[in-house]
TrEMBL record:
ATP binds at E17, K58, D120, V121, G122, K123, T124, T125. It is found in: Nucleus. Belongs to the Clp1 family. Clp1 subfamily. Its main location: nucleus. It comes from the Eukaryota. Residues 306-416 form the Clp1 C-terminal domain. Required for endonucleolytic cleavage during polyadenylation-dependent pre-mRNA 3'-end formation. InterPro entries: Clp1, Clp1/Grc3, Clp1_C, Clp1_C_sf, Clp1_N, Clp1_N_sf, CLP1_P, P-loop_NTPase. It comes from Trichogramma brassicae. GO terms for molecular function: ATP binding; polynucleotide 5'-hydroxyl-kinase activity. This is Protein CLP1 homolog. One of its GO terms (biological process) is tRNA splicing, via endonucleolytic cleavage and ligation.
Length: 418
């Protein structure tokens, strides 16, 4: 039986938003702006254009002046909310604009703002809104994502930066051609804080190199992993210093805000802002799924399919590294060596079955010594380990042989079921 197409119309008054979710597998929902003006997380909608949202999407369509919207397809939830923090978010944007204008006049770097907060409070969404508003003013801000747990602009386990010059496609999120990416290889910064901080330092150093004046005065917006009390303070402070952050926006939690005020450098502005009542929490399963989809799309494409390559490389033709040697209790360490010295040690490994299905980061580095300071060229997955013939089979977006033969092992795994 063919299900009838389900169409709903919504009339929104000014400063309201329509929130909807597409939950069920395989469902698609089409959004169309019929009249008025509306935006999705800061991106202006084009009238009469159909925006397709697939399962997993949780969307808010906000209007400053009122609009009529149409949804086609099955939504799990769809309701209009009158209370939103959008005017506060818009004020943040206005303040950044003032700083950009000033920076432009004085030929100085634009504002650097960092967004922090606990899990599921809309940190990433606020970044999108601020970036889209900036793009609408013809700015070219740098977006830095320090969240290794999620995949937004680069592979999970990595941190990266992009320049944003156009509004994001509301149904697709970040358009990422070539982010500047640094390896970390683990899914939580706390798994190796010393290494994480090194990666943050390097990303800060390199993402600052503005390629033109517009990039320079447009400033930087930094997304961070969810704040965990007692664990995140050191990381946040390190990132604040590395990126020379001017202001931190703390989403939702007064407790975190107070914590930050206690530890922050005096010159740093900290602003507590409310979260939206529309933000939807993600389960661990959904988080895993998002990661899985990102990796799959890296190789096989999304809306536009890609055709990855599979080829063999000889063990002797590649150098595989891993960051961090097993931690020894300090009593076992040689005199004068600290435990940290081990956690950021670059170890050359011999392939074995233990790296099967693992993601390997392909680095531009020409030697082990330059691994930390060098960004990544791309990623491959180990789909077979032949111990007898001493060969690896790799899944790669590019045909073989590998352009760069220094690879770094990631904790991340991907089962290629194609
Ligand atoms: P994490 O801690 O995982 O990094 P986060 O704090 O970055 O989460 P987001 O990813 O920005 O939170 O938001 C969580 C989800 O809520 C997203 O799917 C987002 O699309 C949705 N969302 C955000 N704001 C709204 C809103 N106003 N109405 C409906 N959905 C929303
Ligand atoms: Mn996030």
């Amino acid at each position: 039986m063919v299900e009838e197409e389900h169409t709903q119309e919504f009339i929104l008054e000014k400063e309201c938003e329509l929130r909807f979710e597409v939950e069920s597998k395989g469902q698609k929902v089409e959004l169309e702006l019929k009249s008025g003006l509306a935006e999705v997380f800061g991106t202006e909608l084009v009238k009469q254009k159909k925006y397709k949202f697939s399962n997993g999407s949780k969307v808010a369509v906000f209007t400053w002046h009122g609009c009529t919207l149409q949804l086609t397809g099955r939504t799990e939830v769809a309701y209009i909310a009158k209370e939103t923090p959008m005017s506060i978010y818009s004020n943040c944007h206005q303040a950044l604009e003032e700083l950009r204008k000033k920076a432009d006049e004085d030929d100085l770097p634009g504002p650097v703002v960092m967004i922090v907060g606990p899990r599921d409070v809309g940190k990433t969404t606020l970044c999108k809104i601020l970036l889209n508003y900036a793009a609408r003013m013809h700015r070219r801000p740098t977006y830095v994502d320090l969240d290794v747990t999620r995949a937004q602009i680069c592979m999970p386990g990595c941190i990266g930066a992009i320049r944003v010059e156009r509004q994001l496609n509301p149904a697709e999120g970040f358009h990422v051609q070539s982010p500047l990416t640094y390896h970390f290889g683990k899914l939580s910064p706390n798994d190796n804080i010393d290494h994480y901080n090194i990666a943050v330092t390097e990303l800060a150093k390199h993402s600052k190199l503005a390629d033109n004046k517009k990039t320079k005065f447009s400033g930087t917006i930094i997304n961070t992993p969810a704040w965990v009390k007692g664990e995140s303070e050191k990381l946040i402070l390190h990132a604040i210093k590395s990126f020379k952050v001017d202001a931190v926006l703390v989403l939702d939690q007064e407790r975190l805000y107070n914590e930050l005020v206690k530890i922050k450098p005096e010159s740093l502005k900290a602003i507590l802002i409310p979260k939206s009542g529309g933000v939807v929490a993600k389960s661990q399963l959904q988080r895993d799924e998002i990661r899985e989809i990102f990796i799959k799309e890296y190789f096989y494409g999304g809306r536009i399919p890609l055709y990855p390559h599979s080829f063999e490389v000889k063990w002797s033709d590649v150098n595989i590294f891993k960051i961090g040697a097993p931690l020894l209790p300090s009593s076992c360490m040689p005199v004068g060596m600290k435990v940290e010295d081990n956690s950021t040690k670059i170890v050359n490994i011999t392939p074995s079955l233990s790296i099967l299905h693992h993601v390997l980061c392909v680095t531009f580095a020409q030697s082990a010594e330059t691994i930390f300071e060098t960004n990544l060229a791309g990623f491959v997955v180990v789909t077979n380990v032949d111990v007898d013939r001493q060969c690896l089979t790799l899944l790669s977006p590019q045909p073989g042989p590998l352009m760069h033969n220094h690879l770094i092992l990631s904790d991340l795994q991907f089962m290629d079921t194609h």
